[in-house]
Design goal:
- The chain contains 6 helices and 7 strands.
- The protein is α/β, with parallel strands linked by helices.
- It has a domain of about 120 residues: Glutaredoxin (3-Layer(aba) Sandwich), CATH 3.40.30.10.
Amino acid sequence: MNMTLVPATQLATRAKTPFPGASAEYDAAREALLAEEIELRRHATRLVELRRKLPPGPVIAKDYRFKDEQGFEVGLIDLFGDKDTLVTYFWMYGPQRERPCPMCTNLLGSVNGNAADIKQRVALKILGRSSVERQFAFAQERGWRDLEFVQTVGDDYANDLGVLQPDGSEYPALTVFRRDGDKVRLFWASEMTKDMADPGQDPRDSPDLASLWSVLDLTPGGRGTDWYPKLRY
């Protein structure tokens, strides 16, 4: 259904600064910013609609193998369980790493808090090249209770995903698959590679799932230029 939207600049005039004493300059700048925030919300909504309208993606023809938390070897379609959609996050915790990537860890901490709800609608698996036991041990250390970890068997999956580097290091990857009968199709994958980053910015996807940055983006100092999350403080 097509609806005529009220211009964002008009909607923004309905705002009221929560506390008294704001200057006319602040009120005017905040109203202009609010109009931009409304436009961003609308653009994000359009992106979601476009993503959902993607035509069927390629069939995953290769028989990638994985090892689940019970130690059983399974195929990609087995990771769906009783769901039609599978959301996967490949994290940077390969066997060459002593500890996982701090940013992957930060993101997964946020996802863990929502995992029980997410899994009501879709399957959610965290994939890594380290053994299931090693991944699960770290999850217990962090107090993660609702994430399910899966080991990739061999490096075919990581290589075809394009995340494995010649030196054995990795990039993270968010990938969504859809069940199509007895086949699996790619639905959507994060494809904003490092060479697509804007000048002066770290590589990141849109949407950015890391609530860390969403919160810091609300603050006067923002994300900072010389700060990065750590595993311990």
